[in-house]
Structures are given as C-alpha cells and as structure tokens.
Amino acid sequence: MVATRHESELTMHDRLHMPRSRGAASGLLIVLLGIWGGLVPFVGPAFGYSFTPDITWHWTMGRLWLEVLPAAATVLGGLAVMGSASRISGSAGAWLAAAGGAWFVTGQWFSMLWNDGVMQAGAPTATSNLGQIAEWIGFFLGLGVVIVFLAAMALGRMSVVSVRDARFARERAVVADTERDTAMGTGTATTTTTGRRVRDERDPM
Fold first, then answer.
1. What 3-state DSSP class applies to 179?
2. Extents of the domains making up the chain
3. What DSSP string describes 97-130?
C-alpha cells in the first residue's frame, strides 16, 4: 500500500509556484509605465512636453542610457511579473523592474560623472517652474518612484504562501496521490484529516 502526503505538508514545488494572476495587475502597470518611459522622450516634444533636445524621434546617447535602457528593463521585468507562475522568475522580474525604476530616478545625476558634469539626458524645456516640475516627474523622478513601488508590492505578494496557495497545493497532492494509487492498482483509500492511511473494506485483514 502507498502512503499519501499529510494535508499540511507543502513540497518545494508548492512553495515555489503561485497562480499566474498573483502578479498580473502590478505587472501590467509596470509594463505600461515602462512603455511610457521609453516613448515619452521621442513623442513628448510634439506636445511641448520634453527635455532637451526638443525634437521628436531624435536619438541621443543620453536618451539611450537614461531612458530607453531603463524602460526596456522595466518592460521585461513587468512581463515576467505578469506572466510567471514561478516565484523565482517572478521575483527576478520584479527586481529587474525595480532596478529600471531606480535608474530612472538616479541616472541623470550619475550621468554627470561621465558627461563633464552635465546631465546627459538634457534639461526640461518648460518655461515655468510648474512645467519643469511636471517634466521631471513624468520623465524621471515620479516615474521611477512609482515603478519601484509597484515592483516592491509585487515582491511582497510573491513572497507569501497564502492560505489559498496551501489549500490548492493540498488539493493537488490529494489528486496526484489518488491518480497514482489508481494507476498502481493498489485499491487503497487514504484520508487527509489525520494524516494517517485508513484501510479500505477490500483490503485483506
């Protein structure tokens, strides 16, 4: 006769896997913010919302290093968070997105180290203080902070094995054990209430 797993037992597989819906909402928001961060420097000038140079679809090394690359990292991380059923790959995606968001926040200042003391992605083009604040928030600071926040929230959700996860894991274990016993033709019945195997009426005394 084949023993079954106790209902409170969670395997490593159970602990490392999660429903795909766990990171769907935060992952989607991260992807959308990443797309915004990668496109706004190229399309923003058409609406008077830009950093220098104030030219649409104009490629510069500053835009590559400080906007396109962190945007790409954010989008890739968000896709991993949104579609992964593994806590490992989902968490890795969240960390990648967080790194992209952090670079949005800090990259302009770091670029002064290799760009002769000048921020490589340019300066806000708005003529008013309020307009410049809006450009800083939408291009770099606010964008990066929100990405980091969403990535941290996704990490928190994926790090917890919830009651629902445990229940689904127990149900999968019972089904797997039942199918295994049926395939082996043991004719045994098992119970998960006490963690002990009980004898079916067909079992010999």
1. helix
2. 20-163
3. HHHHHHHHHHHHHHGGGTTTTS-TT--B--SSHH
**Tens place of pLDDT per residue across the chain (205 aa):** 444 444 445 566 566 677 767 789 999 999 999 999 999 999 999 999 999 999 999 999 999 999 999 999 999 999 999 988 888 899 999 999 999 999 999 999 999 999 999 999 999 999 999 999 999 999 999 999 999 999 999 998 887 766 566 566 566 666 666 777 787 765 444 444 444 444 444 444 4
C-beta of residue 44 within 8 angstroms of C-beta of residue 122:
no
Looking up tokens 């790090």, which residue turns up? 159
pTM here is 0.76
Distances (CA, A) of 124 to 51, 79, 145, 156: 4, 30, 19, 35
> For residue 37, what are its two tokens?
């961060």
The encoded tokens of residue 91 equal 């968490």
**What amino acid occupies position 173?**
A
Q: Are residues 177 and 190 in contact, defined by beta-carbon separation less than 8 angstroms?
A: yes
Residue with tokens 């039942």: 178
